[in-house]
Design a protein that fits this description.
Blueprint: H1 2-8, H2 18-32, E1 40-41, H3 44-51, H4 55-67, E2 71-74, E3 78-81, H5 99-105, E4 112-113, H6 124-133, H7 153-165, E5 175-178, H8 180-192, E6 198-203, H9 207-215, E7 219-224, H10 232-242, E8 246-249, H11 263-275, E9 280-283, E10 309-314, E11 326-329, H12 332-345, H13 351-360, H14 364-389, E12 394-395, E13 403-407, H15 413-422, E14 425-426, E15 428-429, E16 442-446, H16 451-470, E17 481-482
Parallel strand pairs: 4-14, 6-7, 6-8, 8-9, 9-10, 12-17
Antiparallel strand pairs: 1-3, 2-3, 5-11, 10-11, 12-13, 13-16, 15-16
Helix pairs in contact: 2-4, 3-4, 6-13, 7-13, 8-9, 8-12, 10-11, 14-16, 15-16
Length: 483
């Protein structure tokens, strides 16, 4: 059920009767192979509740597809994709299920993209870095063929220097440059995971990582995220009991709660991981985005023996999403293995972007400081708007990062997200960020957009909430609660 709801994505964001929009989206899933032959579909009433529509909408959509011979329906036996429907293209069956990716792959006009957490536009230093990088491109007779699977030497050296300056001694041989942080996580999943392996993650966590672990056919186990970023005692018990094959942690300005784990807790996490020989990926993509301008705690790898903690960094959150550059900091042996995997996929990231990134790195602290100030203003604006227009929604102000983790006073966040979409705003429901169901009543709301967009987004969310409550899916809670 959860996977189908995610695959349906923004099905209702169109013109025309809802049953036709739902039928069209189901038809797309069937024709592309994402709903394969004989796949069972949920009962009418169950799907209607999850999509926050009337049962007649689902019944009419199913009946239309039955008439087209794409579905079969039998009383008492259910509804399923007709066996005769074949696609001839098996690859479509591995399309991402998470609605996060649908916001990138299927952008819609007149929909405010509140489901995406990314900076709006690059800083001026980026264009200046490209201008300085252009003369450094190799000449016609340089002998440089442009393929650098491990990354351009200039950027690897600059990244190693940056880690060393932050208290984590690093050599260029410990750095692999990737096409964004997402590719870094994909390479690590490929290196460490086989089908059936266990991955221990925070709940909630970054949905892009969950999608990769799902694609690797791994078994995802969760440890709760507390007010200080992670319930370290619960995480320690899970490591000792389950002995996972891999752990994934976002300890600094956690996505989506904005919390940061203390230095003392990081020492304990590193000790436990080393004791049980569990490799840990620390996703450090949001480093530098403290809303109070303070310094981040040291990287987890600072406290661990070589090879235990693998650090993933990215320029997408601090600089701009269009600068598709990330990196992995690991042992030299792990980097060599990862480089072999990367070379199969793309032979190395684009050289000009790497040269520009190397020019940009010295300015990164200042860029992060300004970005943090901007985010602070937008964070406070979003908090004020939510408190005024949706006082029954509960959230804790973020200490850093780009998002609020908001709890609804009742109902199902996925169903509400469909109603919000029909009111012109795309928002990410919490079950997209957790594998244990703990986020079913939460929304991730980023504060990266300009204030005027945030104001309009909250107005639409409030209108959607009123409509959602009228359906009887949620209680009419009246107590304001901002914690």
């Amino acid at each position: 059920m959860d996977r189908l709801v995610a695959q349906l994505g923004r099905w209702s964001a169109g013109r025309g009767p809802l049953y036709l929009l739902l039928a069209e989206r189901l038809r797309q899933l069937i024709d592309s192979g994402q709903l394969p032959p004989r796949a069972a579909l949920p009962p009418d009433r169950t799907l209607a509740e999850r999509l926050a529509v009337g049962r007649t909408t689902v019944v009419a959509a199913y009946d239309r597809l039955r008439q087209e011979r794409k579905l079969e329906r039998h009383q008492g036996r259910g509804t399923w994709v007709a066996p005769a429907v074949l696609t001839g293209w098996r690859g479509a069956q591995v399309a991402p299920a998470n609605p996060l990716f649908l916001n990138y792959l299927e952008p819609l006009d007149d929909i405010l993209p509140l489901a995406c957490a990314a900076p709006y536009g690059p800083p001026p230093e980026l264009a200046e870095a490209y201008q300085r990088a252009l003369p450094k491109l190799p000449g016609l007779n340089s002998g440089d063929i442009g393929y650098h699977p491990m990354g351009h030497p200039a950027l690897r050296a600059a990244l190693a220097e940056r880690h060393t300056g932050r208290g984590l001694p690093t050599e260029p041989g410990q750095i692999l440059v990737t096409t964004g942080g997402q590719q870094a996580l994909a390479l690590l999943a490929r290196l460490f995971l086989e089908p059936g392996d266990q991955v221990l993650v925070q709940a909630p966590t970054y949905p892009g990582a969950l999608e990769l672990f799902r694609e690797a056919a791994a078994l995802v186990r969760t440890a709760p995220t507390g007010p200080d970023g992670l319930d370290v005692a619960a995480w320690t018990r899970a490591v000792a009991t389950d002995r996972p094959d891999l752990a994934y942690l976002n300890l600094t300005h956690h996505n989506p709660t904005g919390s940061t784990v203390s230095t003392l807790a990081r020492r304990r996490i590193a000790e436990v991981a080393a004791e049980h020989a569990v490799p840990v990926i620390e996703d450090d993509a949001l480093a530098g985005l403290a809303l109070d301008g303070g310094e981040d705690p040291p990287n987890l790898a600072t406290f661990a023996p070589p090879g235990v903690v693998i650090t993933v960094g990215s320029l997408s959150k601090v600089v701009w999403g269009g600068l598709r550059l990330g990196w992995i900091r690991a042992s030299t042996g792990q980097i060599a293995q990862l480089a072999r995997i990367k070379s199969i996929h793309d032979l190395g990231s684009a050289v000009l972007e790497q040269l520009a990134a190397a020019e940009l790195l010295p300015a990164l602290p200042e860029i992060a400081r300004r970005r943090g100030e901007q985010l602070r203003e937008r964070h406070d604006h979003l908090c004020a708007q939510l408190a005024e227009r949706l006082p029954s929604w509960r959230f804790r102000p973020a200490g850093g990062g780009q998002c609020l983790w908001v709890r609804l006073p009742g109902g199902d966040a996925s169903a509400y997200a469909q109603v919000a979409l029909r009111h012109g705003v795309a928002v990410l429901p919490g079950d997209s960020l957790s594998m244990d169901g703990s986020g079913a009543d939460h929304l991730r709301i980023p504060f990266t957009a300009p204030p005027e967009d945030l104001t309009e987004s909250v107005l639409r969310l409030a209108a959607a909430w009123r409509a959602y409550r009228r359906t009887g899916h949620a209680p009419a809670a009246v107590h304001a609660m901002v914690v």
